[in-house]
Amino acid sequence: MNKDVVVIGGGAAGLNGALMLARSRRDVLVIDAGQPRNAPADGVHGLLAREGMPPLELIARGQDEVRGYGGEIISDEVTEARRDGDGFAVTTAGGRTVRARRLLVTTGLVDELPDLPGLRERWGRDLVHCPYCHGWEVRDQPIGILATGPASMHHALLFRQLSDDLMFFQHDQPDLPDDQAEQLAARDITLVTGEVAEIQIKDDAIAGVRLKSGSLIPRRVIAVASRLVARAGFLHSLGLVPLPHPSGMGEHLPADATGRTEIPGVWAAGNVTDLSAQVGSAAAAGALAGAQINADLVLAETRLAVANRSR
User: Fold this and answer.
1) 155-166, pLDDT tens digit by residue?
2) What residues contact residue 302 under an 8 Å CB cut-off, 6+ apart?
């Protein structure tokens, strides 16, 4: 199977990139593993005219739009992408091999959470990470900030905008510097020392935080700054590996403002390169990358046409 462009990842960035390419009459294939990061969430937030739409409904609508312009979408997982002549060969877990002239990588990221009982199963429900994605939904509730690193302090200050009842659980992190402890006190955020043993669940909801000392502190919501790691292992054959993000939030796939990576012919968009991108900005980045890929192909085709005319 030969395509102009293979888009690896079918979230907002990938589908919007594919939409731009399909509307430019490019033969485009989207390969999606069906593991959207925001699947547990009840709705997409902060996206104008789509506020509160269930994530899977947004994806389904996007898929219909891409198909409406002739784009193809398959459910599969890419296991390797390698150079093949002047293009690329993409191999999937389902046994497919697809050749593409260009690649757009939009596989998103994985949230690495502390290894605590009760944490993972509440992810995207009453265990949240982003005040802009989930803050309104948890407003005025008793919120606990579970410290995971330096970013947790900023996390606490942002969530303080949303609730007067906030506790900062130091957990296994070093003692806060005096100036940061003073900031918490000034904003009436309670500092709780001692390592956390588990998140207690009752009646399918968070009931509290149990410390290793045995104390149970009631909370209804836990906010945690997860470590964000790009899904990009399949690019190793191309020499593309995730690198530490300048923010310290995790690892990303570096790309310029248009989505170009250091490997000619490979673009990246969305959370795989921009760890903090919400759905709207990821979709916008995908659209820009799709337009840039089309322009790149146009220039390549024009160079070839000129060479053929000269001959």
Assistant:
1) 999 999 999 999
2) none
206-211 and 216-218 strand pairing: antiparallel
User: What mean pLDDT is predicted for residues 230-250?
Assistant: 93
Tens of pLDDT, residue by residue over 26-38, are: 999 999 998 888 7
Q: How far apart are CA 148 and CA 27, in angstroms?
A: 44
- pLDDT for 56-104, tens place per residue? 999 999 999 999 999 999 999 999 999 999 999 999 999 999 999 999 9
Nearest-angstrom CA–CA distance, 216 and 210:
4
**Residue 211 CB coordination number (10 Å):** 17
Distance between CA atoms of residues 94 and 84, nearest Å: 20
- Return d(Cα 37, Cα 208) in angstroms, integer: 25
pLDDT value of residue 40: 77
Say how far apart CA 292 and CA 151 lie, in whole Å.
Answer: 34
Element (H, E) at 227: strand 227-230
Mapping DSSP to helix (H, G, I), strand (E, B) and coil, where does residue 303 land? helix
The DSSP code sequence of 149-214 is STHHHHHHHHHHTT-S-EEEE-TTSPPPPHHHHHHHHHTTPEEE-S-EEEEEE-SSSEEEEEETTS
Q: What is the mean pLDDT of residues 252-271?
A: 97
Q: Which element (helix H / strand E) includes 109?
A: strand 109-112
In angstroms, the Cα distances linking 244 to 47, 149, 249, 258 are: 28, 15, 8, 20
* Alpha-carbon dihedral sign for residues 35, 57, 50, 206: negative
SS3 at position 233: helix
Summarize pLDDT for 137-146 with one digit per residue, the tens: 999 999 999 9
